[in-house]
Amino acid sequence: MSNILAIARKELRGYFASPIGYVVAGLYAIVFGYFFAIGLNWFVRQSMQAPQFGGGPLNVNQQLIRYVFMNSTVINLFVVPLITMRTYAEEKRSGTIELLMTSPVTDFQIITGKFLGALSLYLAMTALTIIHMAVLFIYGSPEWKPILTAYLGVLLLGGSFLAVGLFFSSLTRNQIVAGMFTFAVLLLLWVIDWLGSLGGPTFESVVSYLSLTGHLEDFLRGVLDTRHLVYYLSFITFGLFLTAKAVDSERWRG
């Protein structure tokens, strides 16, 4: 466990030793803040107009927070490739991968440590959004349990994205190539459910199940379904398994 934590700390320090960590966190905070401001402005206007048309009070969780989180998850398509593209590709380019492979650590420890390091950065940038949630608690009365469920869904979605990024970074020594392949595959998994209308009911259900964002909907509604938990955890495990195979093949070639 100590080796895993040591690798995770090294990865996290590496992000903030270069502009990547600051750029990613700043980009995420700015775009999330934009979505929050737009959503809040719409929510306030709708709340003021609702009594005029005989409508009841709006639900801040379902009609603001849910849509802000769903819209803001598109940022992951851009920031996750920036986080993961250097994890293995930079090690290969600089030649430190040989030192890492010959050190007294297992492939499992290396992969887990790098994943936790990247996940720590993802958690740090997601934590910046707590400021916006605090504003809602100061001036309103949202329910905190659905918010925690939404954060869990966002965390699992981010972990799935990171697992894909680690795999592609382990395949090449070029960071740009790793980032572009990661973005392309994540975008495909983002919109794959659009293909459902092209086939029959079975095909539609399959592509709907494969959609990464489709499993996020219930989390954002405040519903904790074990089916979605199993999906995300299985996806992360499979991504790390593929990374392990790629690292193992690199060790044999070396």
* C-alpha termini separation: 26 Å
Number of helices: 13
Q: Tell me the β content.
A: under 5%
Shape: globular
Which residues form runs of ≥5 with pLDDT under 50? Answer: none
Q: What's the rounded overall pLDDT mean?
A: 84
Helix content: over 70%
Question: Gyration radius, to the nearest Å?
Answer: 20 Å
What is the domain tally?
1
Largest beta-sheet details: none
The overall strand count is 0
- How would you classify the helix and strand content by structural class? mainly alpha
Q: What is the string of helix and strand elements?
A: HHHHHHHHHHHHH
- In terms of quaternary structure, the protein is single chain
Structural write-up:
By secondary structure, the chain is mostly helical. The protein has one domain (about 1-254). The chain has helices at about 1-15, 20-50, 60-70, 75-85, 90-95, 95-100, 105-125, 130-140, 145-170, 175-190, 200-210, 215-220, 225-254. Helix 2 runs antiparallel to helix 3, helix 7 crosses helix 9 (about 145-170) and helix 9 (about 145-170) packs across helix 10. It is globular. The mean pLDDT is about 85.
Brief sketch in words of this structure:
This protein is an all-alpha fold. The chain contains 13 helices and no strands. It is globular.
